[in-house]
Write a structure and sequence with these properties.
The chain is an alpha+beta fold. The protein folds into two domains: about 10-60, no CATH class; about 60-145, ACT domain (Alpha-Beta Plaits, 2-Layer Sandwich). The protein is about 35% helix and about 25% strand. Strands 2-3-1-4 form a four-stranded antiparallel sheet, covered by helices on one side. The longest helix has 14 residues, at about 15-30. The two termini are about 15 Å apart. About 20% of the residues are buried.
Length: about 140
């Protein structure tokens, strides 16, 4: 998974990437409550924001590598979430929050926030562990701080 990421100095990127980060910060800090307000202040379109918001991450120097948020699709079968949590625990990660949507067509979307400060291995190893859980599909890193 981390093979899909690059660290690039923002001076060589188009300015709308930085504006997407600005809009995300406005929302996260509570300066504005709606995406339409954030994109207006940042000077970008809503479509630009939605196109890039999940793919542009801003590193936080103070807490680098301490928290990570993942999205996973789970089959609606007994024990799948438990197996996923066992995998996470085996790598010495601590669960901060879990949000699970109602299953639709036998699948449930789950968002898990983890403390990865004591993790054995790297994020890519954790994602591979999640993929190995029977009934867990499409584990994806959403954000890391």
């Amino acid at each position: 998974m981390l093979d899909d990421y690059l660290i690039i100095h923002k001076s060589i990127l188009p300015d709308y990437y930085d504006k997407v980060l600005q809009a995300k910060r406005l929302l996260e800090e509570g300066v504005v409550r709606e995406v339409s307000q954030a994109v207006k202040l940042a000077g970008i379109s809503r479509s630009t924001y939605y196109k890039y918001k999940d793919f542009i991450l801003e590193p936080n120097q103070e807490a680098a590598g301490r928290k990570a948020i993942f999205s996973v699709t789970l089959s609606h079968e007994a024990g799948v979430l438990s197996q996923l949590l066992s995998c996470i625990s085996a790598l010495h990660c601590s669960v901060l929050t879990i949000t699970q949507n109602l299953p639709i067509h036998g699948k449930a979307s789950v968002t898990i926030a983890l403390d990865v400060s004591q993790m054995e291995g790297d994020i890519q190893h954790l994602i591979h562990c999640m993929k190995d859980v029977s009934g867990a599909e499409h584990p994806r890193l959403i954000a890391i701080e």
